[in-house]
Amino acid sequence: MSSEPLLRVENLKTQFFTEAGTVRAVDGISFEVREGEIVGLVGESGAGKSVASMSLLRLVEDPGEIVAGEITYKGETIFGLEEGPNGELRERDDVLSNEEIRTRIRGNEIAVIFQDPMESLNPVFTVGGQLREFIELNRGLGEDEAKAEAIDMLREVGIPDPEQRYEEYPHQFSGGMRQRVLIAMALACEPSLIIADEPTTALDVTVEGQILDLVDELQAKYGTSFIWVTHDLGVVAEICDRVNVMYLGEIVEQAAVDDLFYDTKHPYTDALLDSMPRPDRTVDDLEPIEGVMPEAIDPPSGCRFHPRCPHAREVCKRVHPEPKIVAGDGEPHRAACVKHDAFDVGYDESPPLEDRGPTPSGEDSADTDSESGLAPNPTADDGGERRE
Amino acid sequence: MSAVSSDLRLGDDSGYEGDGPLLELDAVSKHFAQESGLFAGLQFEPDQFPPISMDPGSVQAVDDVSLEIQPGETLGLVGESGCGKSTLGRTILRLLEPTEGDIYFKGRNLADLGGEELRQMRSDMQMIFQDPQSSLDPRMKVGQIIEEPMRAHDMLDDEGREARAKELLEKVGLDPRHYNRHPHAFSGGQRQRINLARALSVDPDFVVCDEPVSALDVSIQAQVMNTMDELQEEFGLTYLFIAHDLSVIRYVSDRVAVMYLGHIVEVAEKEELFENPQHPYTKALLESIPVPDPRESGVRGVLEGEVPSPQDPPSGCRFRTRCPRLIAPEAYDLTDEEWAHTRAFMRAVKRRTFEAMPADEIRREFFGGRPPGGEAGEIVAEAIDRIATDRDDAAVDEDDWDEASSLLLESFAERSICARERPAYQLESTLGSGEHFAACHLHR
């Protein structure tokens, strides 16, 4: 643990400048990835996990921009800011140029696997051709060598009869097989880090199991580190070593996987676990989280989870908690919740929130525009209580 | 049902008072023509005369399914994508005409109903779709959306419909003041509630819910499922709940039916099915699902290969091509271990998951150096010879693989009882008192 982590992210902020205002999609997150581990980035849709992972490769598109923070990969600076002579922020000199990012980092050092394998493969080229081209460009091999390598990779990820399938087109592959091709592509340059953005979400469970097995196997073989972006806590429990839970652009809890499930420190993580139906036992009553996640354009004051939090007190409205170490002997267990002693902001004396009013905005995910005229909606009150 | 009859129940005649099941499927099949159009089914085959043949191939999306749904229960229908669960749901509502079989709703055969009668019956059966975005017309207001089915069925007058729509909005957990909003102003979970209100507007007895919560976030899922549960009690509803997610199924269902490639492979009460699954496919599904518990180090990836095409499904038990428990053909005298080796070898050859190698190496890799003896042994030896790199004649090519694969399949897989007979067995439940159906010859 003493050695430098493979990737370190400090206080990363990515914002989108839209007409409606600034969307603080990622708002000051810090985490690290060590060699050979699988780090989970978990959250509901709109929590900012995909934006966070794309920021690591500087793949944020207009109107989005990384506005603060530092990303260090193997001692090199992917992103960093310093204060200029006039007090304005500018990129530091040691930040890798776009050219370097493109040729050296993306694909070669850090690869990405996306959720939808159909959209990441070009339907008019053969699967083999695409894989070969990728290897040719990134590793500077000749065409024949690259082809041999491509076939080897296809075999490696468990595609039967790779010579034959090399010539086939993406639509001839099933979803699971396409995802294997993407994994082959990601592994082809033996990167040290793979960002997997919901790679199994679109797959059936039996296929998902096969892919998770494959990832385990390949990880053992190549020692690749993974950032696993997902909303599925089941998958997290299966494969992750450490987990970061995101809520509304922030990391609210960060812990080793076992601690996260068995010694949960943040009420949001707790609530998320309670609201999940279980495959392994019959749950009579699920406790849904009240309300919906607000828009990142106008996050609640203080702790962002306080409008939905069952433990919220008056102080939670005022104090914005940064994640602090709250437990953990070996692996630090961080949580951003003032109810822990580490914060010492008078949670215990603070009165509970009386007016458990409506949720701040009627919308949950980022898939709709918030309508300022929309009256707060009591959707969540399945308990029967309704606002007048 | 009658105890909770609120003012939202329209009339008393809509309830079902019979003792039999609310819905009964008797050997229902739905086959789709593979292509449509003038030249559909024509195949060009250059190496024969005439070089064109008619192949009216069909996709057997649902094949010979029999089920019963009792009034007031929730039957969960679970399966992987492409197994035919949505097709079955639509066939039940007669949105699709069944190719064969009969569907009885409240004791009446839906096939006998036509025109006006069917239309009337439809008000008792409603559907909720998966995608809350595309199942609501973006140009209609929420109020209109909810009133539309009532208007189609000539229920109530304008004022009555509006009052009912508002009441329903409240019932599904929305604000009645949202009556005049457009769907885009609502989040995914809220839209699904609008869908619920629309389905309930005509006071149905039976609702087919096709993946109603799959597109929603976990926390929202729980909210919507809880609302559905409350509504079921209040309105005396019967649900057919279609989903691919076993955890969701476990939460909402009373009984569960598992579907694979157009067949129902297992039906049992929820506890029985999850705790005492009797079909290898159900077991595999349950084992594959990631459990949100890091100390539960599950087995996963237990199923090899992929779902076969429904155009040309396997004979007998449709799961047999992937089944880890495929039964040894009686013709050979094989020990369990020998059969396990042979089965693995057969599948590896069929899927071509390994490279051609010397015969000795194949024997070592697949048979631990001890291939079976007797007649089975001869067949295995012949297959090995076809794909061994150290045999006498030319290098191993495509044809050799195909020959080895068909030799093994014909000698072993096709002779298994699993390939010859379609299984269907009624078992005793160990948990609960209900019936337990399992389509697996292991229970013969």
TrEMBL record, chain A:
Residue span of region Disordered: 343-388
Origin: domain of life: Archaea
Organism: Haloterrigena salina JCM 13891
Gene3D superfamilies the UniProt entry points to: P-loop containing nucleotide triphosphate hydrolases
Domain spans labelled ABC transporter: 7-273
Class of enzymatic activity (EC top level): translocase
Catalytic activity as recorded in UniProt: Ni(2+)(out) + ATP + H2O = Ni(2+)(in) + ADP + phosphate + H(+)
Official protein name in the record: Nickel import system ATP-binding protein NikD
Cellular location(s): Cell membrane
GO terms for biological process, alphabetical: peptide transport
Primary location group: membrane
Membrane topology qualifier: Peripheral membrane protein
Record keyword Repressor present: no
Subunit composition and interactions: The complex is composed of two ATP-binding proteins (NikD and NikE), two transmembrane proteins (NikB and NikC) and a solute-binding protein (NikA).
One cellular-component annotation, GO: plasma membrane
GO MF term list: ABC-type nickel transporter activity; ATP binding; ATP hydrolysis activity
E.C. numbers: 7.2.2.11
TrEMBL record, chain B:
Keywords attached to this entry: ATP-binding, Nucleotide-binding, Transport
Gene3D superfamilies reported in the protein's UniProt record: P-loop containing nucleotide triphosphate hydrolases
GO BP annotations listed: peptide transport; transmembrane transport
A GO molecular-function annotation: ATP binding
InterPro entries: AAA+_ATPase, ABC_transp_ATP-bind, ABC_transporter-like_ATP-bd, ABC_transporter-like_CS, Oligopep_ABC_C, P-loop_NTPase
PROSITE patterns the record matches: ABC_TRANSPORTER_1, ABC_TRANSPORTER_2
Domain ABC transporter positions: 47-286
CDD domains xrefs: ABC_NikE_OppD_transporters
Pfam families assigned to the protein according to its UniProt record, in alphabetical order: ABC_tran (PF00005), oligo_HPY (PF08352)
NCBIfam families: oligo_HPY
Family the entry assigns: Belongs to the ABC transporter superfamily.
This protein's name: Oligopeptide/dipeptide ABC transporter ATPase
Organism: Haloterrigena salina JCM 13891
Species classification: Archaea, Methanobacteriati, Methanobacteriota, Stenosarchaea group, Halobacteria
